[in-house]
Target: OsmC family protein
Amino acid sequence: MSHKVVTHWKGNLQFESDNPSGKLLTMDTSSEHGGHNSGLRPKAMMLSSLAGCSGLDVVSILKKMKVPFSDFRIDTYGELTDEHPKYYHTVLVEYHFYGANLDETKIKKAVDLSIDTYCGVMEMFRRFADVKTSIHYHNV
Model:
């Protein structure tokens, strides 16, 4: 399987990129770097891709396990190198689950399956960054 993404310059430092789903997104940079701050930043989108990939896995697995939760969020932090080309050398992924009587054992299993087996973006990140993960349970 392969993907094709077309990215089109829209003027100044703004670009519009499509996705195999047909959806569009705008990328730009801050005004301090010459942009208009009108879109998403490319490097930060990589962190969003990591969280989205793993999140899709986790929710799908928990649904199959019939594990209830009321809310779920992933906080992803990336530390960039000081020298160019700047890339994320260290990444922290925090999984936050909310609900009454959370099944911590099954949730941990779902997260571990995503991290170790299913999330291709996680595997890509491991090729260039030290990736650390943690799970936080918020029983409400």
